[in-house]
Write a structure and sequence with these properties.
This protein has 439 residues and is of the alpha/beta class. The chain contains 9 helices and 27 strands.
């Protein structure tokens, strides 16, 4: 009798729990394989920043890495972990932390779309002695990574102090999270330093659409202490940075665009549009989108063409075109689509959105279904006129769209010229792969 009861209990557990769970896992893995194959065909499976690399000989297939990723970058494909949506990877290394057998390391894979990444070692020093690369410019996103890199670079640079009276210990180029963290570390070590910023304090964060949430992990700032938030708006984050600059009286000079960095004998000469600085070390903490990428079409020089959206509330009852399909473009479109009377159109060169965080993907679909935003996929802008825009779809269909404002979100130009003239070597997919250090 007991055998019968045991068998019945086993069957109940099997049919009520195990089989539904197995069906769910099988469906998820099937979806992952389908997405992986699709993104490979479209050429968008490879991340352009720091990303997980798998040691399949040690992997036990537990899928802990898949469950840990908030961006849904990973999946189990044909029994093995794989990157199924590389465009969404931001290099936070949560998957590596979650792996119980340490089968995941973080490194650079194959950069795509012509992306070049500067050479640097585990102290973030380039092939040029005393010249460091930190933050986005090095191919690594996230505020936590930027803070760690800025602190480590300063610790190394502090060993090579200035020799001359008129010489600084370090010039930090860029006042974003990486540059300001480096400034705090330099301030803590009583180094003679200056931060040079071409725009305003905030760096890349300054160019985010209004109220954009910035995702990060708790991080320890030199002098200031711990930042405990996991989500924060752009405005609140900028407020924190401004408070830090004021509290510690950091030496930050805005409106100083760096034109050249040259090494002469044992020091560097950093030239800006406003002056010249002599220094023993240079930290380049530039964002990758410092110079917006242009479309190269007629009419792009019109005043109605812009490359960032600050206040969506300023645009009401307007015909607006958004060019691009990334998170910044979609968030701008949603912001503008929310305003009274706006007609918002997105022109995107790919056949569908492929680079969106999950929240943005859900939201943009809602706005499209409600008719608040119109999309023209597989398209490009060919002409910008004072009161309209010409968009070519699928290479042959022409749309002449009424227009008052154009917002272009096509990314930014890597400051390759500055790097090459400074003597910094760059690596691309054809040259080699290099590992990066993440704390």
């Amino acid at each position: 009798m007991e055998t019968i009861y045991t068998t019945l209990i086993f069957l109940v557990l099997l049919t009520g729990i195990a089989l539904p769970y197995w069906r769910k896992v099988s469906r998820q893995r099937g979806d992952a394989a389908q997405k992986f194959d699709k993104n490979q065909r479209m050429g968008i499976h490879a991340p352009v920043t720091l990303h997980p690399q798998f040691d399949l000989t040690n992997c036990i297939g537990c899928a802990a890495c898949v469950r840990s990723c908030p961006e849904h970058v990973l999946g189990i494909v044909r029994g093995k972990p794989a990157i199924i949506n590389g465009a969404k990877c931001v290099g936070h290394a949560l998957c590596a932390d979650a792996c119980p057998v340490d089968a995941i390391t973080m490194g650079f894979g194959t950069p795509r779309q012509g992306m070049e990444i500067p050479f640097y070692d585990d102290t973030y020093e380039t092939n040029v002695d005393g010249l460091y690369i930190i933050g986005e410019l090095g191919g690594v996103g996230l505020i936590k990574n930027a803070v760690v890199q800025g602190t480590m670079a300063i610790e190394h640079a502090a060993k090579k102090r200035a020799r001359g009276v008129d010489e600084l210990d370090v010039v930090i180029v860029g006042a974003g999270p990486a540059g300001l963290s480096a400034a705090l570390a330099a301030h803590a070590r009583n180094l003679r330093y200056v931060v040079l910023e071409q725009d305003e304090i905030g760096g890349t964060i300054l160019h985010y659409p209004r109220q954009k949430l910035v995702l990060t992990r708790p991080v320890e700032l030199p002098l200031y202490g711990r930042l405990k938030f996991s989500e924060i708006t752009k405005e609140n984050l900028l407020t924190i940075w401004l408070e830090i600059v004021g509290k510690f009286d950091l030496n930050v000079k805005t409106g100083h665009k760096v034109e050249s960095v040259n090494k002469l004998d044992n020091h560097f000469v950093v030239k800006t549009i406003s002056g010249t600085f002599r220094t023993a070390n240079v930290l380049l903490a530039l964002g990758r989108r410092g110079s917006p990428r242009k479309l190269g079409v007629q009419g792009e020089n019109l005043s109605k063409v812009m490359y960032r959206l600050i206040e969506a509330e300023s645009y009401k009852r307007r015909h607006v075109l958004i060019v691009g399909g990334g998170d910044s473009a979609v968030e701008a479109a949603v912001g503008l689509g929310t305003q009274i009377g706006n007609t918002v159109t997105i022109s995107y060169r790919k056949p569908e959105f492929v680079r969106l965080k999950e929240k943005n993907e859900i939201r943009i679909q809602e706005y499209i279904e409600k008719g608040l935003i119109r999309t023209i996929f597989d398209s490009e802008v060919t002409d910008i006129k004072p009161d309209s825009v010409v968009v070519r779809e699928s290479g042959k269909i022409m749309h002449n769209i009424p227009n008052e404002f154009v917002f272009v979100f096509a990314g930014g130009e890597l400051p390759t010229k500055l790097l090459k003239e400074s003597g910094v070597k760059l690596r691309t997919s054809e040259i080699e792969q290099a590992e990066a250090v993440v704390a």
